[in-house]
Design goal:
It contains 20 helices and 19 strands. It has helices at residues 3-11, 20-25, 46-61, 113-122, 139-145, 152-155, 182-189, 194-208, 210-216, 242-245, 279-290, 302-311, 339-355, 366-377, 379-384, 406-419, 446-465, 484-488, 490-503, 519-524, and strands at 15-17, 39-42, 68-71, 86-89, 97-100, 104-107, 125-126, 162-168, 174-177, 254-261, 263-264, 270-276, 296-301, 328-334, 359-363, 391-392, 427-429, 434-436, 440-441.
Length: 544
């Protein structure tokens, strides 16, 4: 047993693992990168997390670095759940539901999002921004990435539902973040501890740089790139650090408890499928339909349908049988409480779509709706498809553009894939202008490895040119972090660095993620083979 293991095991209630198989298991996540940790820790509770932070901080004070990466189930596609120091794996023990009442729920970060959702459903409530990966991802991961999903169009992202967080700061101090009044903020700023310092610095930055931050903000309906400085000050002039911690990928502190606000759950919906042969008209439809405030507006393209027709024809059964494949299929959902409102909106939507030469199908029966949803949800089949050594890589899988530019975006993406002679399939959240796609490439092939970065450079430059953002919901990680200066400009990027300094002066919280990441560093961490099998496995056993 190493000295490190001895020390940690002596002080922690949880487990410490250093065996090769565990280090190997945690050296990858859902991304194209690999980084081997020094040791794995399964903290039992907030006291363990605090001790781990304190230990790392004291080492850093003496000039030794042992950084900390907090991790959920590791489905992160940008490399945010990797680190070369201590890997603090929260689902092992910190996975409990602590409290539930009429409109809020308090949970530990290691709880599976899907489990939480099922519990809420049984109380007639739900957490709307659930990601499509909720059956194998944690609520802590959702907070860290500010995850979104198909209902985000109407309901917003994870950060919009956080009432309060418990956070362990870099030096081990445990704080609670929630919206503060001016008076409460001033009181916090008067404290002499690290919490006080953080509040003083962040408040100062927001006052000094307000204009620059506001100007650099991408004008899109959702954005997970950078730090969410624009959201710290609420419309009611409150000051809420939770908005900054959400989406910060564990680079500012470790979240150990979350209180969410929940919404009333209405399982009765109207679902409309719209089939387009004209991309321009599909673009016009998004803007017109958005005015009806649908709860979802999803899209799949011709290439995904073609892929399904060839490989998984059963997924198209009852929806597209023998006819020509459309260019795009939209799924538009209305979940208004009153049946009359759902009916009225569906009728209006059908009228709009008819005017734009789209054929439609309305489904109100849950089982029939499932047939339609199957098309959108089968996008996962693309990711799992085995094309020999080529795999569907998550490298440009989360771009977001202003909704009015949907047609231009799709046209330019198709051109990009043609330029590199790559297979393509697109799916995503049309109502938010947020699209997913994963080109097939072989990480063991030198030419393909170079193509990865060429495609990324071209794609992110295009998205930025169009006034979009590099990521809508999957966050920066190691993958997109190098593009932040291009997206926001140097001045705002410097502000991001100052935010990081305020919370993490020694750079021990998930370093090389989100901030100060060069393309060269990312290149060196590229894996030789992309696979995701183990992600949906259980946690490795905790035997020493």
């Amino acid at each position: 047993m190493s000295k490190l293991n001895q020390h940690l095991s002596k002080h922690l209630r949880g487990d410490v693992l250093e065996k090769k198989s565990a280090l190997e298991y945690f050296s990858t996540d859902g991304s194209i990168f690999t980084v081997t940790p020094r040791a794995i820790v399964y903290p039992k509770d907030v006291t363990d997390v605090r001790k781990i932070a304190k230990f790392s901080w004291q080492l850093a004070e003496r000039g030794k670095k042992l950084p900390i990466t907090a991790r959920g189930r590791g489905t992160d596609q940008g490399g945010g759940a990797l680190g070369n120091g201590l890997m603090s794996v929260l689902p092992a023990y910190m996975n409990r539901l602590i409290d539930i009442d009429r409109e809020t729920v308090t949970v530990e970060p290691g709880m599976l999002f899907g489990d939480l959702q099922r519990t809420l459903h049984s109380h007639g409530r739900f957490l709307p921004p659930y990601p499509s990966s909720m059956e194998f991802s944690t609520v802590g991961g959702a907070v860290a990435n500010n995850a979104c999903g198909e209902k985000t169009l109407k309901y917003g992202c994870t950060a919009d539902y956080i009432q309060e967080l418990e956070v362990v700061l870099a030096d081990g101090q445990v704080i609670r973040t929630r919206p503060l009044s001016k008076r409460e903020l001033n009181k916090k700023k008067g404290q002499t501890d690290m919490e006080g310092e953080v509040y003083r610095k962040i408040d100062g930055l927001l006052i000094d740089k307000a204009d620059v931050i506001e100007q650099a903000k991408p004008r899109v309906s959702k954005n997970a790139a950078g730090y969410a400085l624009c959201d710290v000050r609420g419309a009611d002039n409150t000051f809420d650090l939770s908005r900054l911690i959400a989406g910060s990928q564990g680079t500012l502190g470790t979240v150990t408890e979350i209180t969410f606000k929940t919404e009333a759950y209405n399982p009765d919906t109207h679902l409309l499928a719209a089939f387009f042969d004209d991309m321009e008209k599909a673009g016009q439809a998004v803007e017109a339909l958005s005015k009806l405030n649908p709860s979802a507006m999803e899209v799949v393209d011709y290439h995904l349908l073609d892929f399904l027709k060839r490989n998984k024809p059963e997924k198209l059964q009852g929806v597209i049988e023998n006819e020509e494949l459309p260019k795009l299929v939209f799924l538009i959902e209305f979940d208004d409480d009153k049946k009359g409102a759902r009916k009225r909106k569906s009728k209006k939507a059908q009228k709009i779509l008819k005017g734009l030469a789209a054929s439609t199908r309305l489904r109100t029966d849950p089982q029939e709706q499932e047939e339609l949803w199957k098309i959108r949800r089968s996008a996962a089949a693309v990711i799992w498809q085995d094309e020999g050594k080529k795999k569907a890589l998550p490298i440009i899988e989360d771009g977001v553009v202003p909704v009015g530019k949907l047609t231009e975006f799709l046209r330019r993406v198709y051109e990009l894939f043609q330029k590199y002679d790559l297979d393509i399939a697109i799916w995503g959240h049309a109502g938010n202008g947020n699209f997913h796609m994963q080109p097939f490439l072989d990480l063991d092939d030198t030419k393909d490895r170079q193509t990865v970065f060429k495609v990324m450079d071209d794609f992110y430059q295009m998205v930025i040119e169009m006034g979009g953002s590099t990521c809508g919901e999957h966050n920066d990680g190691r993958l997109r972090a190098p593009y932040l200066p291009d997206l926001y400009g140097q001045e705002v990027y410097k502000v991001f660095q100052q935010v990081k300094d305020a919370f993490d002066p020694y750079r021990i919280l998930n370093p090389d993620v989100k901030i100060d990441v060069s393309k060269d560093a990312a290149r060196k961490q590229l894996r030789n083979r992309y696979a995701m099998e183990h992600l949906y496995d259980h946690m490795p056993q905790t035997h020493h």
